Automatic annotation (TrEMBL):
Gene Ontology terms for molecular function: ATP binding; propionate-CoA ligase activity
GO biological process, one term: propionate catabolic process, 2-methylcitrate cycle
Keyword Ligase among UniProt keywords: yes
Domain Acetyl-coenzyme A synthetase N-terminal: from-to ranges: 7-59
Taxonomic lineage: Bacteria, Pseudomonadati, Pseudomonadota, Betaproteobacteria, Burkholderiales
AMP-binding enzyme C-terminal domain ranges (all copies): 518-601
Domain AMP-dependent synthetase/ligase: 61-450
Protein name as catalogued: Propionate--CoA ligase
Amino acid sequence: MATTAAEFIQQSLDDPETFWAEQARRIDWHKPFDRVCDTSNPPFVQWFPGGLTNLCHNAVDRHAATHPDRAALVWVSTEVDQELTWTTSQLLQEVMTMAAALQELGVRQGDRVLLYMPMIPEATFAMLACARLGAIHSVVFGGFASTSLAARIDDARPAVIVSADAGSRGGKVIAYKPLLDEAIALASHEPAHVLMVDRGLAPAAVVEGRDVAWSTLRARHAHASVPCAWVDATHTSYTLYTSGTTGKPKGVQRDTGGYAVALAASIPTIFDGHPGETWFCTSDIGWVVGHSYIVYGPLIAGMTTLMVEGLPIQGFGGQPDGGIWWRLVEKYKVSVMFSSPTAIRVLKKQDPALLKRHDLSSLRGLFLAGEPLDAPTAEWIRDGIGKPVIDNYWQTESGWPILTLLNGVEPAKTRLGSPGKAVFGYRALLLDEHTGEELTGANQKGVLALGYPLPPGCMQTVWGDDERFVQTYWHSIPGRQVYSTFDWAVRDEDGYFFILGRTDDVINCAGHRLGTREIEESISGHPAIAEVAVVGVADALKGQVAMAFAVPRDAARVATPELARALEAEVMKRVDETLGAVARPARVRFVSGLPKTRSGKLLRRTIQAICEGRDPGDLTTLDDPAALAHIRGAADAA
Ligand code: ATP
Ligand code: MG
C-alpha cells in the first residue's frame, strides 16, 4: 500500500491493471474475473469482465454472515416521528422478503423495476432486492411531476413499479399515488404490477389486478430465502437520470462489478470510513449521491448507514430544529457525514449557535458535493462544527468522486474553494474548448475533461442509446477523444482544481470571460447574503452582462426599496474590490428563494431564460415553482 496520496494516485495511472486488481479484493467475487479491463471498443470500457458478483451480496449478505447483530440501517423520520434500526441479518431478511415479492410479481434478471418512493426504508430494501435478483432499478425522485415520471417509465419500460401512498416534506403530505396513476396513463408502456407501500398518509385508489399491497406480500414472504443471482461484473445494475441542470436529463447506465469496487475503494481512502462505524449522508435516494453513499457505498464497506426523512431545519413533533442533524450525529455517533453546499446554505440562515449544541466528538469530517462550495460557506460550517470540511466534485455519470482529497490515505490538505485534485483512476485534463489543446500552465481556464478509459464505477453508456453516449460525452472537444465533464475549471500552481461553473455558464462581458461561480463566490462573501445565483444576460452594448439574484440571510435587510438599494451597492462594491469592475453585476436583485433542481442545484439556465424573456424550456426537474415566480417578479422589476 502506498504511503502518500500522490503515490497512490500515481500507481493507479502508471499500472491500472495491478492497481484495480488490488482494489477488487475489497469485494467478494463468486467467480474471479478473466481480465481487469477490456479496452477493445473505445470509448466503451468493460471492467472485470468474466467476474461473477452481486451488489446485494457485498452490501448485505457477507456482513450478515460475519456480523449478524451489527446495525446496518438506521432510519429516522422527523416527518412521521419514527426511529428504527435493522441489523445486518434483519436487513438481509427484509431484502429477501422484498426480492420474493418482486419475484412473485414476475420480476426476473435483467428486468427493470422503477422506484418512485419517499425516503423510507422500503426504498432501500427495494434497491437491494433488485440488485439481489439481477434486476435493474431505476429510481425516480419521489414526488416528481407525472409528465417527467411518464417519460422515465417509457424509457425504462419497467416490469414493476414500487411506490408508496405518499411522501411528506416539512409536515406537508404529498400524495404519490395519483401522480403515479396519471403518469402510467400518460406513458405508452404499462407495468404489469405496482407494488404499493401504504404508510397510512394518503388514501390511494387501487387498480384491481395491477396494484398489490406490500403489506400482503411481506406477510406472505416474511421468512423467504432468496439467493443472490451471480451476475457478470458488466451486468447493468441500474439506470439513473442526471439532475437536468443544463437541459434534458441523460439516462446514465451503470455496471455491477466496477461500481462495487470503486465504492468499496472510495469509502476508506476518500472518506476515511471504516467497518462498524456510522455514516450519515443527507442526500435523497433519487440522486446519485443517495445511490452511492446512502445505500451501496457504506453498506458494502460494512458501515451503518443513517437514512433520514425530513428537512434539515425540522425536528421531531413538527418542531423547528435547525440543529436536528447534529442531534442525530450525537445520538448515533456518526463518524463520517456527507451533505451538499445547498443544504449548508439552508443552515446558514439559522442561528450558528445551533451548530455548537451537540456533542460531535464522534465526527471526523463533513464531505460536501453537488455544487461549488464557496469559501465563505466552507469556512462558516467548518468553524461552526469545528471539523474538517472536504469538498468533492463528481457527477451522476461518474458515480463516485472525481476531484477531492484522499482523506483516508493522508489527512486532507484542503484549499478553500477547491475540491482538490483528481483522485485515483481519473486522468483529468484541462483543455481549451475550441482547439482541444491541453492547458498545462497554472491558472489557465478551460474545460475539465477525462482521458480514456474512465475508471471503474463510471457510466457504461446512455441507457438504450450508445450513440448518444459517444456523441454527447466523447465528441464535444474538437480533435480529441476525451470525456467532457461540461464544467469549466482552473488549476492552480499546486494542481488544485477550482470549478468555475458549467461550460454554458461562462459570461462573456466586454471581452472578459468569467465563470458565474467567480462572481457568486465574491457575493456570497458578503455577510448579509445566504445564497446567490449569477447569470449572463444578453446586452446590446457589452455582449453580456451579469445579473445577480441574492437571498439575504435576514429579510429585514431588504425590507424597503432604500434598504435593498443600499445592500445592492454594498454587494457591487464587494465584487469591484474582489474581482474588479468588469465582473460587477448590472443589477443585484433580492429574492426569498432560488429555483433549483430536485437534487438542489441552481437552475441558472432557467433564470437566464427568464431574464432574456425566453421560454425557460424543460422544467420537469424544477423543485419549487414558487421560486421561479420570485425570479420573474425580480427580473421584471430590473
Ligand atoms: P445535467 O447533466 O442533467 O445538466 P447535472 O450536471 O446538474 O445535470 P448531476 O450529475 O447531478 O447533474 O451533477 C453533476 C454536476 O454538478 C457537475 O458536472 C458539476 O457541474 C456540479 N458539481 C458537483 N459537485 C461539484 C463540486 N464539488 N463543485 C462544483 N461543482 C460540482
Ligand atoms: Mg451534468
